Amino acid sequence: MRSLRVSLFFSLIALLIVAGCATKPKAPPSVPDPESSSVQAGSAGLAPAGDAQYQSIDFAILFGSRDAVASWSFSIVDQTKKNAVKTVKGDATSLPDKLSWDGKTDAGAIAAEGTYVAALSIDYGAKFNPGSASSKPFILDITAPSPSFTPNPAQFAYPSGGVVAPISVTLAAKPGLAKIASWGLDVSDSTGNPIKSLKGTWPAGDVAWDGKTDSGGYVEMGKSYPAALAVADEFGNKGTFKGSFTVADIPGAQSSSISAQGQGFSPTTTILKNTLDLAIAVGSKSNAQAWRVEIQGPENGMVKTVRTFSGTASDIPDSLSWDGKDDSGNLAAEGSYFATLSVDYGKTFKASTAKSGNFSLVTTPPSGTIAVDPPTANLSTLGAKNPVNFTIEAKSAFAQIASWVLAVYDPSKVSVAVFNGNWPNDKMAWDGKTVEGGSLIPGSQYSVVAKVQDEYGNVGNLEGVLSTAGLNAANEATSIQARSAGFAPTGDGTAATMEFGISIGDAGSVKSWKVDMIKDNIVQKSITGTGDQLPSSVSWDGKVDNGGYAPEGSYEAMLSVDYGQAYAPVSAQSKPFVLDLTAPTGAIALSTDLFAPDGSGNDIETITMSGSSSLARITSWSLGVNDPGDNPFVSWKGAWPAAAIAWDGKGSNGDLVESASDYELTLQLRDEFGNVGTVKKTLSTDILVLKVGDGYQIRVSSIVFKPYTADYKDVPADRAARNLNTLDLLAKKLSKFPDYKIRLEGHAVMINWDNKAKGAIEQREILIPLSKERAEAIKAALADRGVTADRLVTDGVGAKDPIVPDSNLANRWKNRRVEFYILK
Description:
Layout lengths: L1 H22 L14 E4 L3 E2 L10 E6 L8 E8 L4 E9 L6 E4 L12 E10 L7 E4 L3 E3 L5 E7 L2 E2 L10 E8 L5 E9 L5 E8 L4 E4 L14 E10 L4 E10 L9 E4 L3 E2 L10 E6 L8 E10 L2 E11 L6 E4 L12 E10 L7 E4 L3 E3 L5 E7 L2 E2 L10 E8 L5 E9 L5 E8 L4 E4 L14 E10 L4 E10 L10 E4 L3 E2 L10 E6 L8 E8 L2 E9 L6 E4 L12 E10 L7 E4 L3 E3 L5 E6 L3 E2 L9 E8 L5 E9 L5 E8 L5 E3 L14 E10 L4 E10 L2 E5 L2 E5 L17 H18 L6 E6 L9 H29 L7 E5 L21 E6 L1
């Protein structure tokens, strides 16, 4: 095709020359032709945008009959349009040997792409005929080739061994006017760094690439590599095609998932669950080699991993629980989080990832305020139709509010009203009635506190204030008076209750009243009533509501009167009074440990009494003495304090105390409110020796025998011990009379004291032998204790000489005895 165009081009030039000759007038025969001239192109064409050597074209010029040249013209002629696009002229002074064309027209623009010739015209004046010459046709090349390449197959196949298989690359290009001369294929990685360069001459055919890079490595699986094919024509015009090579990736496993079992949680609460569970499902689980779960959340405006869980194929869990702590064991920051699951399958499958939805970690409790409307309540109009309205204005950054409890506290911090609700209900109307049905205190300030809980259990405290307007004071006075200084509910009954006189002013307006028994600012007992029942007095028995007694001590009675909305509440306080539950305490002191009176008044026992009472004064005392049979023997009494008692050992009836016996002293102390305290003391007597005529009698009635026997040992243990002690004392006492004989006279109790005949028989046959046997038993006991037996004489008189009548069943034990007489 190109040779055809050249043939046509030269034919056209020949025709033009012939035509020119045909029309040009012939020179006069006398003017000769000049020598031949020539124009030779330095190349087959030019490309202003091509290689530097082809950006212009040079022409070698030969002027025939050079010395005769008058002027000349050099033109670049478009062979298609038959017009000159560029013309250079000169005269005999400038005859160039070479000219160059850069492809631009006389107007300075690039000439149209096509085939051109360079034409030289020479004027010799009258010396020669005009001369001309033309170059061979050449090309002005502007259009670059249009290349493309096609990988075959379309991508590198996935290699089981990790190295890709070769790929064939088909190169193609559409030329412009010029022939295609060379090609270059450059491949780079995703960051633009070159990794492979292929090049050659045209035509290229199919090019093979084994995936190996210029550095000796191989392309990586699952990646795409940008490539550019550059094709240059013979003049250096270059056309570029951009494509890419892709490498097949590892196949994907079955999908995995991770999901949060809830919208959020709070690790700092104990009310609800304080951990978050994450459900995990691993696809292609049998091929998994390792897994990793990351909890990610905000930090300084960026997402950061705060907690990591990981493991191998042997311990893939179905769920995980996050306690809100980071990998260092510290509590993570509050905010929105999500979890990612990464599973590594080695080279079997591509590593997979999954992401949960967002969930919240919440540590900050709800915050806000309580709006109170109106802020100051008028108690005269407060009620169901004109309530106080509370609005809970709560908020939470990361959690929904779930519920609330609102309480109203009086000035002493006691709750008077409680309400609760679930969000979004945030309003509550209150008629001002307390939980006990009472009314608010006028002129006071109440605290309104709401505990607001979010969905994760965090509880925030919100506060507000409610004030109440004051009420007018009542016109008439109110008072309460304690009618005595104290009382003793557990005493002798003389002051078992405390009586109070009450006077309540403006009685017709009273709604309710209350008397509080107060100790150390604590109410121990309350007595209440309504306006329909206004007493003039009240009585307190010292007991509290559970039936027990209040703690003893100093009290005041507080009378409180509620007038509703008619007047301000009134209170009055009594003078202090005493609740006395503790009886006085005391002690008995004796001047001797062993009392031995002789009946003459010379041997005296001094009895000293002491006592004390924590709350009340001791006002009186009494002291009684009981004989060994627990019968009253003698007593004294008087006002407190008591003087010491000098006792001669005689009873109220003049009887002297028995030898070697115990007499129980009982002291009773009474305080001013009737509490009675009792103190006991035992007084022991020695062996008593009394002057009887010319001799002495030893009084011993404390040796007790078993009824109907002479056995003094087989008696109750305390009696047996007393018997032995008496014998010890008696032996000791007899040692003081070594020159005297001792007569032991035994006595017994007559059972038939009310029958003279039977009594006589009992005396003769039973009692005299029994009393004699008793005297002998004591004689043997004294001999065992060192008393010489020949000093001891025994006798038995039976019931002949009783101390008390045998009919005295309570005291006739005294007749069951042995008496001792000291004889010269």
